[in-house]
Amino acid sequence: MMLYPELSLYVGGRFLNGDGRPGQDVRDPATFDLLGRLPWATREDVDAALRAAHRAFQSWRRSSPMERSEVLRKAAALARERASEIGHGITLDNGKPLPEAVAEVLNAVEHIEWHAEECRRIYGRVVPSRNPAVRQLVVREPAGVCVAFSPWNFPFGQAMKKVVAAIGAGCTVVLKGPEESPSAIVAMARLFHDAGLPEGVFNIVWGVPSEISRQLIESPLVRVVSFTGSVPVGRHLAALAGSHMKRMNMELGGHAPVLVFDDADVEQAATLLARLKTRNAGQVCVSPSRFFVQAGIHDRFVASFADAMRGVKVGHGLEEGVQMGPLIHERRLQAIRELVDDAVQAGAQVLAGGGTLGERGHFHEPTVIANVPQHARVMREEPFGPLAALARFDTVDDALRLGNALPFGLAAYVFTQSIQTSTRVANELEAGMVNINHSGMAHPELPFGGVKDSGFGSEGGTESFDSFLVTKLITQI
Fold first, then answer.
1. What total number of domains does the chain contain?
2. pLDDT, tens digit, for every residue of 450-461?
3. Could you tell me if 247 and 264 lie in one domain?
């Protein structure tokens, strides 16, 4: 039986434990068992991390792309070796089933490997001059010290995407990871430490989020802010970063619409969507959450989807065959309860689930509510849990109006066999990512990001390094 790892800060190449620092308990959301104690950084620790990153940047910015690539490749190889161990820690402090946790680690490994290759291809260009005696160069240089804030729902994967893009670009990083699910972040530090990353290039701090974020963002040593999380927190941090003229990328919340048309493969769509809806207990920013089904197949789809949701096995993530674990904390459980109650009071019908499970743990049944009116809270507020809200529509125009009705624009899903319908809907949906008849957004070679209130900037794809690079013109005679 693997043990839960010891938790620490990582500053200037050193792991720092409690040593009288304040901290917090970390508990298993499935059992409430105490897993460990997470030390919080003092103001002095945060300043030390910033100074370490600033010192390291002076040399790392000039490092060869080949050197950066080699370190990232070593980290990727170590992560593959340790995937089961890291995944076990994620299951304990996050709750997701072990196969999902290990898959998160292995997907992150692909991101490390991809960035290890692509960081060798950060090219500039020569611009032909109007004067033959003049040479004109455009070069891309690392922006500086980056502070990154990563969420608890994918503690290893989300943080890794930010860190490897920044490191590959030649930046240094101070990361504030999720206090609810910290083991994967400490594992990241050990990976980079063992891979030979120079001290100070990567640092981790923990603490009261509002206090830590303000100290990091306001520091004059910081040049880039990268955040993944909720829209309200993202707005606050963006305002703070903007007031200090910091470069930013923001991957914020979604409330992904699903448009299921009359000519869709109903059973295939229902099965896939039930799997996506219950992945990580629905605590996924791109989780399908507003389901709009065309009238001709509405009843058939609803029946098939509800059956699929009822068949999901819920339990502790280390148990064999479990497909969905608990929610991360009591606040999420209470939020789902309130959304279900509000929808029922508004006239919706509960077709599957609807309640909590067990005496211990933050477990909620996979839940389907149908005939949900548009004024219900669940149609306007992202549930971030195993709750699917369904309503019907008649025409393509209706579907687009409903799909685009909110200020969010991260992911969207479309199910149709019509090229004409899929083309029009893909063009007109206000979303950063549109999935047609499947889900395919997690690959490192693809950009991941949203529009409108769902943020700006992309992680992954050739756009991955953009937030961490500045463009410089050199003109010489």
1. 2
2. 999 999 999 999
3. no
